[in-house]
Fold this sequence. Notes:
Distance between the termini: 43 Å
CATH superfamily of the largest domain: Ribosomal protein L4/L1
Keywords: Ribonucleoprotein, Ribosomal protein, RNA-binding, rRNA-binding
Order of helices and strands: EEHHHEHEHEHEHEEEEHE
Helix content: 25-40%
Number of domains: 2
Protein name: Large ribosomal subunit protein uL4
GO cellular component, one term: ribosome
CATH class of the largest domain: Alpha Beta
CATH architecture of the largest domain: 3-Layer(aba) Sandwich
Organism: Leekyejoonella antrihumi
Low-confidence stretches: 211-220
Region (Disordered): 47-102
Mean pLDDT: 88
Structural class: alpha/beta
Number of strands: 11
Amino acid sequence: MSDMTTVDILSPSGSKEGTVELPAEIFDVPTNVPLIHQVVVAQLAAARQGTHSTKTRGEVRGGGRKPFRQKGTGRARQGSTRAPQYNGGGIVHGPVPRDYSQRTPKKMKAAALRGALSDRARHGRIHVLTGVVEGEKPSTRSASGVLSGLTERRNLLVVLERDDNVSALSVRNLSDVHVLEAGQLNTYDVLCADDVVFTQAALERFLSTVNKPGQKAAAGVATDGADSAEPLADGSSPDAATFTVKGNKDSMKYHVPGSRWFDATVAEVWFTTAQAAETAGFAPAGGAAAQQVKEDDK
């Protein structure tokens, strides 16, 4: 894979205004189809309201009196006209309100988004514009002409900066264009679009906020001091005699040798002592008692 993918920056008039390099760690990574499928299924499930509901025979109004006497009618005995077999009766095993959302780790969602963007970039379906329209006046006709000049494919995803009101007003009525702010970019919308169009400002905003592989996940965690260090490529300690405490930047928890989850944890930062980890803002995994390991247990 190449280090960078270069894309032309076009003006609304179609002239080339420069180029931009798309980082390979975001726009040129392997596409993990099962991962993308799992993330999309979770996203669509979370969009379900889950407010469906039916009433059982105990919740339907009426039916308190026995419809006819128990014996002597020749008919099957009945206790209520709200039994399920009656018209207007309760529902058996009907749907009840529930939450359809699924837990999806942030790293999985970020990896799926990188895979979807990489697929579009490899096929030349990432475009960058200085702006959707020229000037300060919104124009849907001008925006439609600019976007149709980029590609013949129908469905477009336009990514804008949050305060770019002129572009947003220009494209909001285009039926085949879906508009997102840079911070709202997600895997499902990328997959639904044939081409992804960034404004230059939106691309810069996205690249500045996206969590790249190897990037510090927790702001303010120093890993270049004397008491902490980055792990090696395989996750091991750079100095097994000095750096012995594992830290997880997502959960902001640390694990001392011999503790319950120490062997199963992949270190994202190593510390010399538990006190050094706490100074950096990490908390003991499972509580302080879980990280107080006896010498015989190490």
